[in-house]
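In the current project phase, the collection of sequences with tokenised folds has grown. A sample record is quoted in full directly below:
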Amino acid sequence: MDQPPPLDPDPLPFTRPARGVSGNVAVAYADGVTALLQISPGREGIHVKGYSPTSVDPITLSSIPLESDLGDVALAFRESRPLRAFQMPDGVVRSHFDARFAAWRAVAFLFFAMLAVVGFVFFPDPTWGGLIGGVSAILAALSLGARRKQLRAMTYALVTDEGSYPFDRLLDDRPLGRRAEKSVQQVKEAYGALVSDVVYRIEYPALFDPSTPTTKAFTSALIEWDNNQAHLSGSELSTLAGRIGLAFDAAKAHAETVGMTHLPEHTRERAERAAKALRVATSKSTGAAERKTAMGRATAILEDLMLHYLPRPREVLSLVEGRRPLALPGRRSVEAEARA
């Protein structure tokens, strides 16, 4: 039978409010277990029906507080530390019990039960007969329980329109890794476009200052990606890619909120004049002579300001000519700090 195509689920941050999550959610835990939680927000709380390969029966959690986040729900379901969560497609959970285990258990029970009867009823020595019968009766009872073997014989699968996915295949690495790479590449391209926009860099300098907490978090996440990409699994790449995207959005939003107030107060007026001159220099309607004059004025101001997170005069000339930036602003500073 052909295998269904790998699922391509959306990563979910554990900080997301649980009332904003519904449907099937796969959670990978630190002990290697992947569980599936069916989450249903209600008026009075969060209802969860969960399936785990460590439990024969589904586990139901009722009335989890509405103010809980997804991480709280994952911890309430299992004591192990949750690592990653993904929104899975609609589908139903089916259980499969290995018939070979049922046959083994029946044979074992019958054998020990018959041995117990022989010991209690037919064995000539009452002492030895009682001992054999008692031990056999205990073994017969244990063969009916055999919980660990029962867990190994029981498997769960999420059945969707695409096919049946056993829990150990829910988080297939291939599509997760490819999707993560595409997501990070889009962030890098968006950031690179802002790096190349010299006017933007002056007007919103916090995005390029590695001492800004939001920018440091973003740049550090990018460095972590570049340094560890080859060694991470697809699900780990997906989680890191999600963190990079959120960090970039946060850093950009902060920079655009504070604007030039991020600059030392005594430099803001000159920085505004530099940005205005560069706007003239980069306008398509500006003549060659006026462009040269405006560019000279802007680079002179930037040379005088000498703020490490603003573009240097030589870099301005290079970017205006259409060349790509050689490195991300602040990257070298963050890398040096990480090595220290």
Observations:
- The first helix runs from residue 70 to 77.
- Confidence is low (pLDDT under 50) at residues 146-153, 329-340.
- The first strand starts at residue 10 and ends at 12.
- DSSP finds twelve helices and nine strands in the chain.
